[in-house]
């Protein structure tokens, strides 16, 4: 008698990070690594800030043309994977479920908790307001870095798009600042993943089982449990 | 000193706590080991970055794969090229004088071309291959372009170039406009080529003047290419021959691993 019940639940069960999402996450990690390392190599050829040169040890490509080769290879991985991810996030309702709504009061409370080291990591499946804002923000930064990248690559073919920015060097600067934001995000993201190892493991194994809210209505009891 | 305590008594934990003096005596050693672990971690992190620094790009098979992607990017760029779409132009007040020098060597090493004896040779799929003197070229109708020069390195400036339109010139000498490539052979052993779509673009000229004056030696006297749709390095200077061809040959920069199409 219990067997069919288990089966019907298991069909509605989902991991916190379903397999396609985990694959996209790690492909993205590799793409970001390539794009940042090769981008630093390209930057070094004509620096924006006189005081900032990236050491040879941390850039990808011994010569500028190798950096460019890597960058224009990595861009395909980053953009195609990113588009699939965004489509997936919208189509499955993952973004709506995980990232909305965002409450300002909750945001301030979470910041307060974080400053007092009182953040709770008991439930990985629910993102706090700071996480929601950071994840949404980094997605917008990701979109902006692609748009500015297109404008740097093709300022004439996409002159209408490039014309939205003041001039070519402004586009370079925004592209650079987006990179800086991504580096800062990755630093915090990796540090927190190491501090809360179950979150890192979840991105490898899928993490705890969650009940899909959209389908959860069929299983009111389970949903109540999940939201606690 | 407080003995070790766990939240729940464990069966693995001895009833009598361990003598803490052992730890105190060996505190330095323990700290040292920890420090070494940190060091080891740092070294392996360094090794990971060195992996990129030592450059896998130079590895033959990696280079082959990357160049395959670069050729694919050439095709993508050709596909999205808008044949009659004009690049933004600027006012004479925005022009930088003199232009910024770019070549594979320093400005001091420029070997000036003697304009009196210089001739432009024509080769390949061109009907009238008679060479042109500088004076003959100056007689042709001029087109002025005030456009942005963008270098692959990331810098840019606005320049004011004038000279005969390349399409008009190719038509005049009876070039095969259905051919694939136009090659520029330069006085400094530099060769560049562009696709025919770029050669026929309305903003592609054979420049003889900069800011209304004959181009100075470092910037390509007596004849150079200026197109609004390619990166700086595709704009060949000190041109001594033009060849129209269907055959693809690697050029100076593409041999070094730079992208051949280099469209902007």
Structural overview:
The complex is a heterodimer of chains A (228) and B (264). Chain A is mostly helical and 228 residues long. Chain A contains eleven helices and two strands. A two-stranded antiparallel sheet of chain A has the order 1-2. Chain B is α+β, with helices and mostly antiparallel strands and 264 residues long. Chain B has seven helices and eleven strands. Helix content of chain B is 28%, strand content 20%. The chains are: A mainly alpha (228), B alpha+beta (264). At the A-B interface, helix 2, helix 3 and helix 8 of A face helix 2 and helix 3 of B.
Strand count, sense and barrel status of the largest sheet of chain A are: 2 strands, antiparallel
Radius of gyration computed on alpha carbons of chain A: 21 Å
Mean pLDDT of chain A, nearest integer? 87
* Relative strand content of chain B: 15-25%
Strand order of the largest sheet of chain A: 1-2
Low-confidence stretches of chain B: 1-7
Count of DSSP H/I helices of chain B: 7
Describe what is shown at a glance.
Chain A is mainly α and 228 residues long.
Please tag this protein with its features:
heterodimer; A: 228 residues; mainly alpha; two-stranded antiparallel ribbon; globular; disordered N terminus; disordered C terminus; B: 264 residues; alpha+beta; 4-stranded antiparallel beta sheet; 28% helix
Strand and helix layout:
The complex is a heterodimer of chains A (228) and B (264).
Chain A: H1 2-12, E1 13-15, H2 19-44, H3 64-91, H4 94-99, H5 104-115, H6 129-153, H7 159-162, H8 168-195, H9 197-205, E2 209-211, H10 213-216, H11 220-227
Antiparallel strand pairs in A: 1-2
Helix pairs in contact in A: 2-3, 6-8, 8-9
Chain B: H1 21-25, H2 27-53, H3 60-80, E1 119-124, E2 132-133, H4 134-139, E3 143-150, E4 156-163, H5 166-172, E5 181-186, E6 191-195, H6 196-199, E7 204-207, E8 209-210, E9 213-214, E10 224-227, E11 239-245, H7 252-255
């Amino acid at each position: 008698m219990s067997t069919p019940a288990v089966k019907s639940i298991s069909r509605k069960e989902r991991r916190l990070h379903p397999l396609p999402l985990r694959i996209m996450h790690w492909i993205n990690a590799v793409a970001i690594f390539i794009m940042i390392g090769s981008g630093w190599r390209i930057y070094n050829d004509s620096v924006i800030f006189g005081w900032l040169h990236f050491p040879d040890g941390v850039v990808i490509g011994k010569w500028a043309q190798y950096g460019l080769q890597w960058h224009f290879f990595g861009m395909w991985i980053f953009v195609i994977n990113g588009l699939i991810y965004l489509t997936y996030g919208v189509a499955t309702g993952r973004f709506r479920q995980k990232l909305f709504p965002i409450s300002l009061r909750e945001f301030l409370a979470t910041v307060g908790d974080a400053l007092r080291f009182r953040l709770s990591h008991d439930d990985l499946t629910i993102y706090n307001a700071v996480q929601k804002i950071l994840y949404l923000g980094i997605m917008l930064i990701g979109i902006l870095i692609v748009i500015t990248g297109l404008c740097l690559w093709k300022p004439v073919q996409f002159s209408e798009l490039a014309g939205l920015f003041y001039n070519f060097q402004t586009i370079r600067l925004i592209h650079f600042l987006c990179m800086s934001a991504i580096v800062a995000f990755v630093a915090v993201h990796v540090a927190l993943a190491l501090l809360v190892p179950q979150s890192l493991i979840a991105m490898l194994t899928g993490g705890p089982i969650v009940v899909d809210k959209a389908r959860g209505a069929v299983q009111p009891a389970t949903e109540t449990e999940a939201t606690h | 000193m407080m003995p070790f305590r766990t939240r729940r008594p464990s069966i693995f934990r001895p009833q009598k706590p361990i003598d803490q003096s052992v730890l105190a005596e060996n505190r330095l050693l323990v700290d040292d080991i920890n420090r070494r672990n940190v060091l080891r971690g740092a070294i392996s992190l360094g090794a990971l970055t060195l992996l990129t620094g030592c450059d896998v790009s130079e590895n033959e098979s990696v280079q082959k794969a990357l160049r395959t992607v670069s050729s694919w990017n050439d095709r993508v760029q050709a596909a999205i090229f808008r044949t009659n779409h004009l690049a933004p132009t600027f006012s004479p007040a925005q022009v930088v004088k003199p232009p910024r020098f770019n070549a594979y060597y320093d400005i001091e090493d420029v070997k000036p071309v003697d304009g009196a004896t210089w001739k432009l040779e024509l080769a390949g799929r061109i009907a009238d291959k008679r060479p042109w003197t500088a004076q003959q070229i100056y007689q042709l109708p001029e087109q002025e372009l005030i456009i942005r020069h963008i270098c692959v390195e990331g810098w840019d400036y606005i320049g004011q170039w004038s000279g005969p339109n390349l399409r008009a010139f190719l038509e005049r000498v009876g070039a095969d406009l259905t051919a694939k490539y136009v090659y520029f052979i330069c006085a400094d052993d530099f060769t560049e080529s562009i696709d025919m779509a770029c050669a026929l673009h309305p903003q592609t000229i054979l420049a003889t003047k900069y800011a209304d004056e004959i181009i100075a030696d470092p910037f390509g006297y007596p004849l150079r290419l200026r197109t609004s749709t390619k990166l700086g390095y595709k704009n060949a200077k000190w041109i001594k021959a033009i060849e129209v061809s269907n055959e693809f040959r690697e050029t100076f920069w593409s041999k070094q691993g730079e992208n051949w199409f280099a469209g902007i």
